[in-house]
Amino acid sequence: MYHSVDHFDEDPHLVTVSPARFERQLAWLRARDLRGVGMRELLDAHAAGRGRGLVGLTFDDGYADFATRAVPALLRYGFGATVFVVSGRIGTYNAWDDGPRKPLMTADQIRTVAGAGIEVASHGRHHVSLPRTDDTELREELEESRAALEELVDGQITGFAYPYGHATSREIDAVRAAGYDYACDITPEAPSRHALPRTYVGDRDGPLRMRAKVVRHELRRRSRV
Ligand SMILES: [Zn+2]
């Protein structure tokens, strides 16, 4: 689970990985015969028994640096990824965050990354914590974001990521009912296709920490099979 790939001076919420570190992390994966892919490809491959050696790479919030820095590096490695876009904030900035302002992808940038084979998925409309919404707002966050993104990329949107990783059984049921095929959580109490666990990767993650995170994630994944 990544957010932003960019140079930074301050990063209080630890959401930014420097371009040089990101490049080394991709090289680290490739050196171990691991290939980064989007979540839809990862889930399809697992279902077909071809999941070995694949690592799902996700980028939350849809920062502009995803288009300008992350995607060019991913494509150089032949990797894919999923980007979770906040549909009501396209072309603006991370107004929900009290950290440094970061620009979000424009509609053109989103169409360009989709055209490059990157999976575009939904992170809701306004990046609100879904357990705090009423039923109408919850439905709008899920259904309107999906419809807006489908129109934007002229294709199906099948994935969702819960803002802040906040999801109770109510939100998980609502995401399923809204027609999403899968959803990414962070540390779900009961992992499922609509509450997939993810592992945070940050700027401090060099080879030793990467290795520990891969092992831990694999144990976590297997323990529920
Ligand atoms: Zn987010």
TrEMBL record:
Keywords in alphabetical order: Signal
A UniProt-annotated Pfam family: Polysacc_deac_1
Primary location group: secreted
Residue ranges constituting the NodB homology domain according to the UniProt record: 53-225
Gene3D superfamilies per record: Glycoside hydrolase/deacetylase (3.20.20.370)
Example of a GO biological process term: carbohydrate metabolic process
Location of this chain's protein in the cell: Secreted
The keyword Lyase is assigned to this record: no
MF terms (GO), sorted A to Z: hydrolase activity, acting on carbon-nitrogen (but not peptide) bonds
InterPro entries per UniProt: Glyco_hydro/deAcase_b/a-brl (IPR011330), NODB_dom (IPR002509), Polysacch_Deacetylase (IPR051398)
GO cellular component: extracellular region
Protein name per Swiss-Prot or TrEMBL: Polysaccharide deacetylase family protein
The species this protein was found in: Actinomadura soli
Classification of source organism: Bacteria, Bacillati, Actinomycetota, Actinomycetes, Streptosporangiales
